[in-house]
Amino acid sequence: MTTSTMKGVYPILVTPFDQDSQIDEESLHRLIEFNLEAGVHGLGVALGSEVYKLTEAERAWMTRVVVDQVAGRVPVVINTGANGTDLAVHYSRMAHENGADALMVLPPSFFPAGAEEVLAYYRAISEAVPLPIFIQDVVASPISAGLARRLAEECEWVRYIKVESFPVVEKVAAMSAEAGDVLTVFGGAGGGYFIEEMRRGSVGTMPFCTQPEAFVEIWNCVRAGDELGAWQTFNRYLVPIARLSAQGAGLFHGVHKEILVHRGVIRTSVVRAPAASMDPFTRGELKVLLEELYPDGNE
After folding, report:
1. Following DSSP, what letter does each residue of 132-184 receive, concatenated?
2. Residues annotated in a binding site
3. Which CATH number fits the domain that encloses residue 110?
4. Are strands 76-79 and 102-105 parallel, antiparallel or unpaired?
5. Would the pTM count as exceeding 0.85?
6. Which of 18, 189, 215, 255 has a CA 20 to 30 Å removed from the CA of 240?
7. Does residue 272 belong to any structural domain of this protein?
8. Residue ranges making up the domain that contains 84
C-alpha cells in the first residue's frame, strides 16, 4: 500500500503463544482484527512482540500473516534492527520480501557504536531495501537530534524516528525542533506520554495493542482540540495499566497479555522464557482493575 506520511496510532502486536510456547495463529488473527476494528492507523511487529525470542522462520511467517490479514487497510511496520549490520540488512530484506510497508530499526546496542558506525549501519539498510525506515531511539542506544538529522539527510529511506529514550517528552520536543523538517516524529515508550508528545510535534505513537480504542479516542480528541476529553480517557484507561506494568523489567508483556485474555482476544498470557512473572498480589490487583475497566471483557 502507499504509505504517504504515516501518522496516528500504530499499536505493536504481542505474539500470542499457546501453553507450549508455540505461536497461536488463531489468537493472532483475532488480535489483528481487534486492533483494526478499533480504528488504528497502522500496526507494528517489534520489541513488544518479543521478536528477539522468535526464530528467523517465525519472524518471516509472522510478517506474512500480519501483512496478508491487514490486506492494505493500514501500513505494517516491522522491526528489523540487529547488533550486526549484515544481520539487520538480512532481516530488512526478509521483511520487504514478506510485504512490510516500513521498517523500524534500532541501532546496535550490544556494544556502544559511534556516530560514524551508526551512520554506516543505517546507510547499508537504506541502500539494500527501498522501504521507509523508522529510527528507533531507545535507552540502550539513544540517538541525538543532531545524529538523527544527519541520518535522514545522508540515508535516502530514513524518514521517521520513534523516540523512547528518556526524558521522552523533552527529547520529542528537541527532535521536532532540530530535525522535524527532515524526519517525521513518533512517540514510543508504550504511549505513556502520548498527549505531551503531540503537543511537542509528534504525529503518532506506537503503544501496546491491548487498548487500541482508548488510544484512537485520545488521538481523535487531541486532533479535535478536546484535550480535556483526551486526558479523561488517558487517566481512566491507560494510567492504571501503565503504573502496574512498569513495576519490573519484562513484566509488561505478561500484564498486557493478561489484558488481552480478559478481553477475549487471545487464549493464553504465555510469555516466552525467560520472562518476569507477576506475584500473587500483583495478579490480584490486575484482576480487580480489569473487572473495573472491562467488566464484560471486551467492551
Report:
1. -EEEEEBTTB---HHHHHHHHHHSTTEEEEEE-SSSHHHHHHHHHHHHTTTSE
2. 206
3. 3.20.20.70
4. parallel
5. yes
6. 18
7. no
8. 8-234
Chain length of the chain: 299
Cα(95)–Cα(12) distance, rounded to whole angstroms?
Answer: 16
Q: Is residue 135 part of a domain?
A: yes
Annotated binding site for pyruvate: 206
State how many domains the chain has.
1
Cell of 145: 537530534
Pairwise CA distance, residues 232 & 226, whole Å: 10
Residue 290 maps to a domain: no
Output the tens digit of pLDDT for each of the chain's 299 residues: 545 689 999 999 999 999 999 999 999 999 999 999 999 999 999 999 999 999 999 999 999 999 999 999 999 999 999 999 999 999 999 999 999 999 999 999 888 789 999 999 999 999 999 999 999 999 889 999 999 999 999 999 999 999 999 999 999 999 999 999 999 999 988 899 999 999 999 999 999 999 999 999 999 999 999 999 999 999 999 999 998 887 765 788 999 999 999 999 999 999 999 998 888 998 999 999 999 999 987 65
